[in-house]
Structure to design on (322 residues):
């Protein structure tokens, strides 16, 4: 009877995620269009932070409960899944190729790889992420936000320049109403995504325990997949709706956010244990980032074959965990 209930909750969680992703992508991309903000910036900020809420919630909650070690496993597992599974599925399920913005290839992807290497070095050198290192991650996070704000301003200025000489259209209350609908759609979508993710993670974890899987296996796979479900549904939905910049930006931004904000905040609260067994996982995370970067140079896009190779990469990692 308990298994049947957990399966029902699992299906309910998936349904909330699917609908929430649709609302969230439609609302956030609509807001970006109205303010003249590039979709890439929206993907790297609002969407990335919103869909990373489950990782942040799980990790910070674990720290407050005295289980800081969960943070590293959650971040490592989520970042690997984000690239191998989510971008792999996004590219594999999208009929056309998924374009990658030049700035993402030039700036954000290398930055993601570098900070992953830095976190690996911190953990390898000291077997923990100390408060001082957490503060360092937060300082880098603030610089990253400043860089994104500059990108947003540049995009808004460019759109304003393009609109010069065009007749202005007064939409009055209709414009206000449309913006209110977009904001509401984004908020409802995010709430459904976060709640749906929580329901799905709890149900999947219970099913795994009933079956008899180990805690480490559950943490690096099921819980990591569960907290990455918002990125999965948002990215696939965005790519299918033609908002590819949101799809790629969402994943790269989420991985950056997971390391700088989630680990940084957790370490500021209390030093985060970095067990030696997680070194391999972070090496895999670095390799996944490098592979994504290499694929992105090929026509500045991800095609179905490359998506399939990313999925095979996760299959290999999954076999290693087993």
């Amino acid at each position: 009877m308990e298994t049947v209930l957990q399966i029902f909750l699992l299906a309910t969680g998936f349904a909330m995620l699917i609908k929430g992703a649709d609302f969230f992508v439609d609302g956030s991309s609509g807001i970006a269009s109205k303010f003249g903000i590039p979709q890439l910036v929206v993907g790297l900020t609002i969407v990335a932070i919103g869909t990373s809420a489950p990782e942040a919630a799980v990790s910070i909650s674990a720290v407050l409960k005295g289980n800081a070690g969960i943070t590293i496993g959650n971040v490592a597992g989520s970042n690997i899944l984000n690239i191998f599974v989510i971008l792999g599925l996004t590219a594999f399920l999208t009929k056309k190729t998924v374009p990658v913005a030049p700035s993402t290839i030039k700036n954000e992807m290398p930055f993601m790889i570098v900070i992953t290497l830095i976190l690996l070095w911190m953990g390898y050198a000291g077997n923990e992420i100390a408060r001082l290192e957490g503060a360092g991650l937060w300082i880098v996070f603030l610089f990253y936000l400043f860089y994104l704000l500059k990108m947003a301003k540049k995009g808004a200025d460019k759109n304003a320049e393009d609109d010069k000489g065009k007749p202005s259209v007064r939409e009055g209350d209709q414009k206000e109403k449309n913006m209110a609908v977009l904001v509401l759609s984004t908020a409802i979508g995010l709430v459904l995504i976060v709640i749906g993710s929580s329901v799905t993670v709890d149900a999947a974890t219970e099913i795994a325990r009933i079956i008899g899987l180990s805690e480490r296996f559950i943490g690096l796979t099921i819980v990591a997949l569960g907290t990455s479900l918002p990125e999965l549904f948002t990215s696939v939905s965005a790519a299918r709706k033609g908002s590819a910049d949101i799809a790629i930006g969402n994943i790269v931004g989420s991985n950056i956010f997971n390391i700088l904000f989630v680990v940084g905040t957790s370490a500021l609260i209390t030093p985060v244990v970095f067990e030696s067994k997680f070194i391999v996982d972070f090496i895999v995370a670095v390799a996944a980032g490098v592979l994504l970067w290499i694929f992105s140079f090929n026509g500045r896009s991800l095609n179905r074959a490359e998506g399939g190779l990313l999925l095979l990469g996760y299959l290999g990692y999954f076999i290693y965990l087993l």
